[in-house]
Write a structure and sequence with these properties.
With 301 residues, the chain is an alpha/beta fold. Helix content is 33%, strand content 25%. It has an 8-stranded parallel sheet with strand order 8-7-6-9-10-13-11-12. The chain has a 5-stranded antiparallel sheet with strand order 1-2-3-4-5.
Length: 301
């Protein structure tokens, strides 16, 4: 898929789907099946002239085997006939799609007009994808990489420098000086103290779709304006929101808006911010379909 679609073009495809009337609230739920090594996910979607389904495996133990944590395939179908059109690498599609979703949110939520300081949690494929997607939509003054694996953090920082951005490794406390905080990890507990995040900062959390796992803490969620891909999906799968709700710190109405609201211009824009902006993504089937279609059409098959 490399070279067929840039992160910015993938974000454009997602925006076009939303502006074309697609309603993420009606997107089919993710089906999860316990498997011997982890979890098998099934994510179908249909819209316009196309349909498709992603079959993905999440295998935590694969890292020790030198294998990807995420595996799978995406089958793209002709909508009217359901005739198979293409078979895509499911992990590669996810590595492109998830950063593109974040980039689309950042277009609307991240400060503009000046280079930004990014604190990036994680050093896996999603961290690399989010670095490049962020560079596609905002200028970065510095990247600070925070990861459990020191060698992985150093490699990602070196990659950022190869893209022309000042970069180094750092610690979670550096969110205090960040304009952007992006979390791309497998963490099940908060990565940093949300009280440190400045009122003008934007935080993106993409690492989990499990109701008991989270990357951000209750302190951040309680004081942030919260945006999601879909209210229904977030209130079903987003531990970053469900754990604070279970604690009684927030209610279901705490969500400020959705990605469709941002793209459709239904949220206020501009001006100083009195609180952080948090975008929590769980990953949805309609996003896979939109990006798979864009890849298929870009290939000119």
């Amino acid at each position: 898929m490399a070279g067929l679609l840039t992160p910015a073009a993938a974000a454009d495809a997602l925006a076009a789907a939303l502006l074309g009337g697609l309603d993420p609230e009606n997107s089919p739920q993710r089906t999860a099946l316990a498997a011997p090594g982890g979890e098998l996910l099934l994510m179908p979607a249909a819209s316009g002239a196309y349909a498709g389904v992603k079959i993905a495996g999440v295998v935590p133990g694969n890292a020790a085997r030198g294998l990807p944590r995420i595996t799978g395939s995406y089958l793209l179908l002709d909508g009217p006939t359901l005739r198979p059109l293409a078979l895509l690498d499911g992990a590669a599609l996810t590595t492109l799609r998830t950063p593109a979703v974040s980039a689309l949110a950042l277009r609307h939520l991240a400060p503009a007009g000046r280079p930004l300081r990014l604190v990036l949690f994680g050093s896996g494929p999603q961290a690399y994808g989010h670095l490049e997607a962020t560079l596609a939509v905002r200028d970065l003054a510095e990247v600070v990489v925070v990861a459990r694996n020191p060698e992985g953090a150093q490699r990602l920082a070196a990659h950022a420098r190869s893209l022309g951005t000042a970069a180094r490794t750092g610690t979670p406390k550096e969110v205090a000086d960040a304009d952007l905080v992006i979390c791309c990890t497998t963490a099940r507990e908060p990565l940093f103290d949300g009280r440190l995040v400045g009122p003008g900062a934007t935080v993106v959390a993409v690492g989990s779709h499990e109701p008991t796992a989270r990357e951000t803490d209750t302190a951040l969620v309680r004081r942030a304006a919260v945006y999601v891909e879909s209210r229904a999906a977030a209130l079903r799968e987003a531990g970053d929101l469900l754990v604070p709700e279970a604690e009684g710190a927030i209610g279901p109405g705490h969500i400020t808006g959705t990605l469709a609201d941002l793209v459709g211009g239904r949220m206020p824009a501009g001006g100083p911010r009195s609180c952080p902006q948090l975008f929590k993504s769980v990953g949805m089937a309609w996003e896979d379909l939109a990006v798979a279609v864009a890849l298929y059409e870009a290939a000119g098959v």
